[in-house]
Model the fold of this input.
Amino acid sequence: MSCFLVQLTVLVPGILAVYCVAYIWRQYQIRSSERRGDGVPPSLPSKDPLFGIDVYLQINKAHKQGRRSKVFKEQHDALGPTFESVTKGKGRVFSMDPANLQTICSSKFAEWGVAPLRLEHWGALIGPGVMDTDGQYWKHSRGILQPLFRREQVLNVSAFDVHLERLLGHLPPDGSTVGLQPLFVQLALDFSTEFLLSVSVASLSSGPNEEASRFLKAFHQASAGVGRRTQLLGWAAMPWGRSF
Done:
């Protein structure tokens, strides 16, 4: 018991010191923003304003329930088009303001990057490319893909017809209820693989297609793994099991 008390007397002051330092640093960031005239958006209420563990747990739970987008909408409804939040000790700004989106995606695109957030976490699935790099590497990757998205190429939807017909073939002729979400996922996968790779996985084709089923299952597992890695930030390098 005495050993436990000794450890407790060391641990508690250490935790308090960490919280104090984090609080002082956060206040310094806020004051610096105010002095620069940047403006400080409203903050998402949190029981743990320094590390935001409760916010992370809430979003993680909503993600598992398929409600993450709904939770974000509720937060925007309550706080406005732009707000800030602290998750796992890192400050984040969420915005749906058209002016902010135009600045980030167009007028000042070169000043904003995605590599620090995505490259480490997405690299296991897609490697470095147009989705997770910045600067010259991004320009090179974009140049490779750009011919695929020429106007005449995008407007040619004839290749879409065969996949749509296959989807319609999965609808019950008696008009009974059917879940469309899995079919739409397969439709998007079939068309996008043909559009980008010239060969479709044909997951909607009639009859069993074990290869397409394995590919679709692996794709979903990999996408879910990348999503978890992105959410956990600093824990991205931890092992995720053989399925990932």
Observations:
- The mean pLDDT is 79.
- The radius of gyration is 24 Å.
- The beta strands are 82-87, 90-95.
